[in-house]
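Table S2 (continued). Query chain:
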Amino acid sequence: MEDKVTIAFDNRELLSEICGANDVNLRAIEGSLGGFITARGNEIHFESRDEVTLRRFKTMMDSLITAVKLGEQPSGDYIRALAEEFLPINTNGAPVNTQFQFTQSETTEEKGGALFRDSMIQIPHGIRHVYPRTKNQAFYIQGMRENEICFCIGPAGTGKTYLAIAHALQMVLSKKMRKLVLTRPVVEAGENLGFLPGDLAQKIDPYLKPLYDAMESLVPYEIIQRMEETRSIEIAPLAYMRGRSLNDCMVILDEAQNTTKEQMKMFLTRIGSGARAIITGDATQIDLPRKTDSGLLHAIEILRNIDGLFFTFLHTCDVARNPLIKKIIQAYNESKS
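Corresponding output:
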């Protein structure tokens, strides 16, 4: 005899968001958990012979309802990523970070649910709350919170820059940090654009546009303007960082795979008292003449076992930008094998 879980909603709009257009989200839940799910009236019914699956469904729905109430608009990919939060490893067998441990008394569902909820980023005056889409992204957020220097390495679309910006804005706008410093190496991806007109900020602006794109999707543009006026945001070309001491600020080094070994050492030794640094990069997109010169690869090799430095690695399974991106990355990876 099949067991059943019933969840009743007193808000039809919330129920509609959970179900999705033509119940597409319910079908995604079925596909991720197994069992049989239906919506009748103001209730969702889930049937399964497996007690563990029933518990996973309850915990997953609690997290999903919380996310929707806070502004998340779940898609099929979001549902599938959420389902993975309640597994001990990713369903495709990709490695999972193990820096954060749970007590033995916690169930797998409690581990995943707590990790998902505790990793939410709430930005003061922000447009939306930010949730991790995968377990590895949740570990990344926890790593940024608990370590002074955090490295995140992963392919395009895994959210490494977006989550770094979200965390940094939260810290600065909540007055926990004095300002946000943005930097990246000025290396062009296979094209030479020549000399750019304007002052320093205008010259570096094209290279930092991805960071501003992330900010504009998280907070109103007026907030960004105010931060610029009060110098709470600073654009700092990597070449101009030598000799500085960055205190009480969030520092983001993006596209770190294109730093040289000397630049990476110089940047890391700029981090002063009370400062926190986030270094992001994609080891598969190195634009230096010799890939072995990458300061990011060198840092992974020689710094990975130092206490206080946090390294997190995102994978194709963590791609959240667009479902097609995951397929594109997989195709390129397969073409090299």
